Amino acid sequence: MTIQGITDLKKVAKKYGLKDGLNNIYNQASGKNMSPKPNALTNWEAIPLKDTQILYAAVDAIQSRESIILLYEKYGKGEDMVYFLDSFFLDFLFLSQS
Fold first, then answer.
1. How much is the pTM?
2. pLDDT value for 83
3. Distance (Å, whole) CA 6 – CA 90
4. What is the distance between the alpha carbons of residues 83 and 11, in angstroms, rounded to a whole number?
């Protein structure tokens, strides 16, 4: 697996005066009211992960991506997406999984 960049949604929320937390950011950006997901406090070091944990992680990833796209559409103001996101990048990481 290769990760090319990580965006800190807390920085995005702060910059645009949004309530912190992925569900809050998504709800404010989308105008929807998605309730918090279960399994946030489960044992993420357990192997194998439960199906509910895998689903939680997948929904989290999709919700994060959608939040960034919605925020770009709302606040990007014609700016290139790379420049818009550049101020939120934490780091560039290159991870490999064998």
1. 0.68
2. 66
3. 6
4. 15
Rounded to the nearest 5°, which phi and psi values hold at 89?
Answer: -65, 130
Helix axes 51-75, 22-30, angle to 10 degrees: 50
Alpha carbons 10 and 7: distance in angstroms, whole number: 9
Q: Is the pLDDT of residue 91 over 70?
A: no
Task: Supply the pLDDT for residue 97.
Answer: 41
Distance CA 92, CA 39 (A): 28
Task: Give the tokens for residue 3.
Answer: 């990760």
Closest Cα to residue 75, out of 14, 6, 16, 5?
16
Two tokens, residue 32? 């929807």
Provide mean pLDDT across the span 43-48. 87
